[in-house]
# Entry
Amino acid sequence: MEQEKNTLTVLEIAPGQYPKQVEIDPDLKALQQAVGGNIGASYPFSDPVAIVYNDDGNLVVGLGEEDFASLTPEMAQKYERLFHQPEDFIRLGHRMMVVRVPDEAVCPEESKTTPPKDAGFDR
# Structure
């Protein structure tokens, strides 16, 4: 994906979907909009990347000298492979269980707002 001027190339990881590269503006408001609200950041990897997150979604972003930066094509590919299979988290008492979502249950992006045709509505 070719980077547009003044945008960040990041990896969007939405619940129940495969990761995808997107372009976003490099400001706080755009980061918050991309994950659906207030954000936190975590730096769990030795690579120069961060996970920008909230309860509704995550972004994998690159790290510059003083701020977030675009992912390099190599980093985007590496983290797309790492996060390729969506996972679901199930609370079991005080513990969490991680379950991989099977391919047939992965939601295409366009189905996020459109109910399925057989949504159970009887007329």
Remarks:
- Helices lie at 28-35, 73-82.
